[in-house]
Amino acid sequence: MKINWNQKYFTISVYAFGTIVLSALVISLIYNYEKVSERLAFITTVFIPIIIGIFCAYLLNPLMMKIERGLFKKWANSENNKARGRARVFSLTLTMLTVILVLALIVILVIPQLVTNVAVLFSNMDSYIDSAHKFVLNLSDKYPQLAEFLGNPLDDIGDLLTNFWKEHSADIMGFAGNIASGIWSVLDALKNIFFGLTISVYLLAKKEMFVGQAKKLLFAVTKPELAQRFLGVCRRSSEKFLNSIVGRIIDSFVAALMFFFCCLAFGMPYVPLMSVIMFVFNMIPVIGPILGLIPCCLLLIVSGNPIMAIWLVVINGVVGTIDGNFIGPLILGDSTGLPAVWVLISIVIGGGLFGIPGMLLGVPVCAVIYMLIKDIIENKLKKRHLPPDTSQYVGNVDYITSDYVYEAPPEAPSESPKESDPPKKSAFPFMKKQKSEKKNEKK
Question: What are phi and psi of 36, to 5 degrees?
């Protein structure tokens, strides 16, 4: 018996069935949120080394290619596969040796200083509380008008500083007593980093093969036009994201180095610890240096150096001015292309969702999203023969009607550079754009 299927009602039935199944899955996820979150956390823990490996390979690829096309240019451009393989092996080896050297310097020079500073901080906590209490009392004695104006708050602050350590010393020392678990967490993180770096070595060694396999899959499941458009978006997004991340790391390191030497010149305590704090927070644009300054100032105040805290604010202002006006533009250029308000919004949203990592990665991710949305909007405006520039929409837009046609200004003819002209320097000197691989394919 032949069944006559009604195409219209069959389509409606399929959509209805899909909607019911999807709704059931969503309801099941809501009622089993704890079990699902535990499963997701377990899966995330398992995949952390792989994620670290992909991210490390992504960050180290520009350095490896720079070494390969610089020191081993002759081998890299050779038609002999063995010569190209030799160039890859040597460049990858030098890249990983550089990473190992940096990590070794951090472990040898920074970690012992951090452990010593934290140990001294906990051991001298009683004296720090007493010094802060005496500072409050001396302030009220020297400036009675201030004490009279503030009234009881000064006494309350003194009582708070006196009683805080008595009430919470057990908790704080209990926190200090959990160093073993902290050391285990550090060892677990180092294990993940080790496996991640090992995975990144394999990814970098055969990166052309992995990229080729991904492109092969893309062209197999989509149309060539969509695949080419997707690859173009990926290239632009990767360039913007990578420039932002690597540039921010280098800029933060330079600023933290200046901060370190300035604090060392003033004879401040806990200089390595404060420099590491400022390095981490400097990777957060705009508000990062201010957020990093707060724990550093509190550290100096409780250690009995309130005047040093004032000088620390001055040092941070000077370093921030030099970095913002000279070093930052030289290293970063316009790597994000984001307006200041979107930078702040991305920091707030990223920090609210993912904490410190979200604040660090929020800006480059927002820059990529901003670029993609901007391209989509401008392409739609061009198809409708409307001006793509935002300045055209500032003020009165009554001239844009249904029959309005935007005429783009003629492009200036491009002049070929003369041989005597020096090559233009990039705003991103440490990372030049990689040459097109088509030249190597033709060779």
Answer: -65, -40
Work out the end-to-end distance of the chain between its first and last CA atoms, rounded to an integer number of angstroms. Answer: 65
CB 133 within 8 A of CB 161: yes
In total, the chain counts a number of residues equal to: 443
**Tens-place pLDDT, residues 5-33:** 566 677 777 778 888 888 888 887 777 76
Q: What angle do CA 67, 435, 103 make, to 5 degrees?
A: 30
Taking residues 291-301, what's their average pLDDT?
A: 83
Q: Give the pLDDT confidence of 117-158 residue by residue, as tens digits.
A: 667 666 666 666 666 667 666 766 666 665 565 554 445 555
Residue 312 Cα distances to 127, 128, 133, 294, 384, angstroms: 22, 18, 21, 10, 56
> Tell me, what DSSP letter sits at residue 399?
T
Q: Cα–Cα distance between 310 and 37 in angstroms, integer?
A: 46
DSSP 86-144: HHHHHHHHHHHHHHHHHHHHIIIIIHHHHHHHHHHHHHTHHHHHHHHHHHHHHHHHH-H
Distances (CA, A) of 36 to 19, 20, 51, 353: 21, 20, 21, 19
The three-class DSSP label of residue 73 is: helix
pLDDT in tens, 346-372: 877 877 777 767 777 777 888 888 888
Name the amino acid, one letter, at 414. S
Kindly report the number of other CB atoms within 10 A of residue 99's CB atom. 16
* Tokens of residue 357, six digits: 């990592």
Residue the block writes with tokens 């996820």: 29
> Residues with Cβ < 8 Å from 356, sequence gap 6 or more?
280
- DSSP assigned state of 388: -
